[in-house]
Automatic annotation (TrEMBL):
UniProt-recorded name of the protein: DUF7402 domain-containing protein
One GO term (biological process): glycoside metabolic process
Keywords assigned: Signal, Zinc
Annotated Pfam families: DUF7402 (PF24135), PIG-L (PF02585)
InterPro entries listed in its UniProt record: DUF7402, Galactose-bd-like_sf, GlcNAc_PI_deacetylase-related, LmbE-like_dom_sf
A GO MF term: hydrolase activity, acting on carbon-nitrogen (but not peptide) bonds, in linear amides
Top-level lineage group: Bacteria
Signal peptide per UniProt: 1-28
Amino acid sequence: MKKHRWAIPVVLGVAGLIASAVAGPASASPLSGDCAAGSSMYVVAHQDDTLFFTNPQLAHDVGSKMCVTTVFVTAGDAGKGNAYATSREKGAEAGYSVLSGVSNSWTYTNTTIGGSTLRRATLDENPRVTLTYLRLPDGGFPDGLGYPVTGDQSIRKLWTGAQSTITAVDGSATYTRDTLIASLLALMNEAKPSVIATQNTQGSYGGPDHPDHLTTAFFTRQAQLAYAAPHVLRSYQGYDVVGKPANVGGGDLLGKEAAYYAYTPYDSNTCGTPAACAADGSDQWLRRQYTTNNSISGNLAELATVTSSSQNTASGQSAANVADGVIGGYPADQYAEWATIGGAAGSWVQMSLPSASTVSRVTLYDRPNPNDNVLSGTLAFSDGSVVAVGALPNDGSAFGVSFPARSTTSVRFTINSVSSTTLNVGLSEFQLWQAMSPSPTTLAGNAATASGADWTGQDLSVGRYVAVDSGTAGHIEAQIANAGTGRLKAAVYSDIAGSPGTLLAQTSELSDYAAGINTLSLTSGVDLTVGTAYWIAIWSDSPSLRVLADPGGNGRYVAVPYGAWPTTMPGTSTNGHLYNLGLKP
């Protein structure tokens, strides 16, 4: 499953296939702050990665009139030069134009971020869609160690410390590990996304996925730890999705294929046609989309300074590897682990944080080789408290340790006993988790900021919202513009391919409603998962009901008589409202 081993493409006339299924032209730039429906940022390695691995979610974001910013970290040059890389950029632009249902016309600007000059493309007829190109050298598959033509540079080597700097293939910018993280953070602060989507943050080198995919995910995860705005980090599985059931079909599949086959004429290393992609198996990626992790809180270890009793730097097994986000070690990938030099009981590794943080859990991963094994240890915090740790699994799998939350500036893990076969004790990974803050008042829904209202009386009205935290919702709040008499109720539906799915829960009825917030109790709680979309519905038999709402949302309605909630939502009509509805604990 190598990205660059496919046939010469054939141009297909696909641009019209999904134009009717997505939003029409927008009228605002994502960088102007006019993103009433929200903002998402996709950070990926290559120009076709969003089309392969994060679509149809990408299409849903574009279709819901969200501002969508995509950052391509590498040039995708595959060692073939700048002309091939820029052609792939044109392919990405063609694919995004199809997703937006508008013509392939873009405006190009150079923007300075963190002292580096970046190329940016803005879609003329839907300027909520922008693409930003960092153009760093492609690391190549399967090792990700670079190509001679670009000096064997790669983002994997930058991440692991094997090289100290990396220069864009067009010479536009040079980065260190820290300045690349800072530049990604600056892009996040500029776009203000509530959802940051990237590639597999849970993967490890040496598997079927591209090393550039994984490294891009590691850099993105690191940058978002310092991004202060509330957000969800969404991680997408890569080439290894082929081991899972196909889950993209119907209109989503048609749209995904249309966008991808608009890209292929610009990439001479693609399969190019449906027949060719079916023959080489790459159409399996079109038929699948899987996330690997949706998280709000981060691993604080990635912000820490790491020290240890000893470390084998000569073999690349330094203490810093316990905080590199890569789970693995000798014999598959010795650069992913920390190993002492002859260390046994009494060896230690310490995380020192830049400021006091509240923590409540660590996850430890032993070295995965069969000989070196930690049998017991102790966690010591800067406040003087300690927590005992038992034997770590000898296969290098996760060992979680939970404890009452405490504020600390450092955590030291001291190894108290080891197996008789241990030669050089160490760890693959040492994750330090920030204590989760209390659940937000609203688990999913719109903030109470709408200035307009929509006449929803005698229509079943519904809006789509992404959960900002996991939890059990017991209530729905609706902000009503006017008092009135009549029956009012609300419900929660699942999301299926960007449309209302099945009924999950419903509220009891109100016989009257007041102006302002009306709280309706769910007859049974509904468990929400962070990063997952849900539809909140409201229904009344009053012809005068008005719900606070702003334009620019993904609201829909069904003109059906008031009655029993349908088990599955019937065909809906779009009205573009962003309703003030919220799911509460």
